[in-house]
Amino acid sequence: MSPGEPKPRRFPLKLDQVAATKTAVVREVLRPQAHLQQVEQDRRRQTIPQGVGLDSAPVRHRMVERLTRDGIHHAGVLAAFAQVPRHLFVDSALVNQAYEDTSLPIGLGQTISKPSVVAAMMQLLCTRPGAAVPASAKPLGNCLEIGSGCGYQAALLSLLSTRLVSIERLRDLHLKARQNLDELRRQTPHSPDVRLVYGDGTLGHAPQAPFDTIIAAAGGAALPQAWLDQLAPGGRIVAPMEDASRGGAQVLTIIDRLPDGSLQHSRAGEVLFVPLKSGTT
Ligand code: SAH
Question: Is 231 exposed, middle or buried (0-12, 13-18, 19+ CB in 10 A)?
């Protein structure tokens, strides 16, 4: 600039200068947010949890070995546990514990049962004396699950049933199970379909009855009459039930419908499940 020339005005700024400045500032602010959103999207899309390692199959294999040591011997049950990625069904903060033998919270005060208990119940159903073909690939036959929760057990059961109906009384959990099972189907397109029902499981599910197997993930003072009515000959119910003689502690209860139509009760050990409640929320 030559000495006689007037200095360019710095203030007040002309309108086009103001607009340019504003745009620059806005871009500065938006870029980091866009980046964070991208990171969050990537994190959500991530299918293998960091704590579980790059491939979750070996962790599941160790879980299956543990189940075998705990007395689970049914090949179909063990294969189902080896196949279904439990980490997909739990909150991302709990992913590191997904393959431990522990129950985990799934929201709304409910819990996903520990693998050893789920496996023991499934084995009791698969080895029922009334099963038509003991070595069948679908030993659970037409199966009813009470308490879909997050959908994990439904995914396991579906691999061993000809058809599975799973009922949940809490709407938000019903939707969560649907979302989780949809995600599972996206990742493993050949996973069997599950009929998820939002409703009161104490009423069973008459449209698809009779059932060869009924499994409950929640326990009350008595087994609902509808479950007994909807149990096929040769069928079995496995459910937790409060035992008055043990101060109301829950005991795993097994009911078999014999070929002559009569019912036979037996019991396995003490368990701890969330309460079976009536109605929907
Ligand atoms: N199998 C589930 C565990 C769910 S915990 C899983 O793998 O995640 C037990 C579930 O039973 C809870 O979600 C609870 O809401 C549900 N429940 C309790 N009473 C019920 C009823 N009468 N009908 C249907 N679901 C019921």
Answer: buried
